[in-house]
Structures are given as structure tokens and as C-alpha cells.
Design goal:
The protein is an alpha+beta fold and 80 residues long. Helices cover 40% and strands 18% of the residues. The chain has two helices and two strands. A two-stranded antiparallel sheet has the order 1-2. A hairpin with a 2-residue loop joins strand 1 and strand 2. The two termini are 23 Å apart.
Length: 80
């Protein structure tokens, strides 16, 4: 079984480039990690955030924020 195409790489990159801070690499890494975590939660739950679905198997209760230390600096990760 394949997962539906949840992450749009072109849209994610375009959004990151238009809203990027002076430190582009950190901004891109943060956007990518948060998008992947959200896509993984969508796959587990069976529906996207805030969208009703008859295939839903669980609920999402929001996000908790944690700092992640990387080579490009500390980034804020939103864990679903």
C-alpha cells in the first residue's frame, strides 16, 4: 500500500525561499522536518490536519515544540 502524495516538494521549496531568513539552510531544514513529521502524522491518523475523513483512525491534538540542535544551528521542531 502506498501513501498518498502528502508533501508537495515544489510548493514547500517555493514557500521556504520566499519566507527565508538570512540563514536559508536552517529555514529549509526546519520547514522540511516539520513537513515530514506532519505528513507522517497524517498517514498514521488517516486524514490531514483539520479535515474530516471517514477513513480517520485516530485524532490529532495539536503540536508540541522542541528545539533540535543541528550543524546549521538550533531549529524549532513542531512535533504532532
Amino acid at each position: 500500500m502506498t501513501a498518498p502524495h502528502i508533501v508537495d516538494p515544489a510548493g514547500l521549496l517555493s514557500e521556504a525561499l520566499t519566507d527565508a531568513s538570512p540563514d536559508l539552510m536552517r529555514s529549509l531544514l526546519q520547514s522540511l522536518i516539520n513537513a515530514l513529521l506532519s505528513a507522517d502524522a497524517d498517514a498514521v491518523v488517516g486524514a490531514e490536519w483539520g479535515r474530516p475523513s471517514p477513513d480517520r483512525t485516530a485524532q490529532r491534538n495539536g503540536y508540541r515544540h522542541r528545539d533540535l540542535d543541528t550543524r546549521v544551528g538550533t531549529i524549532d521542531v513542531a512535533i504532532p
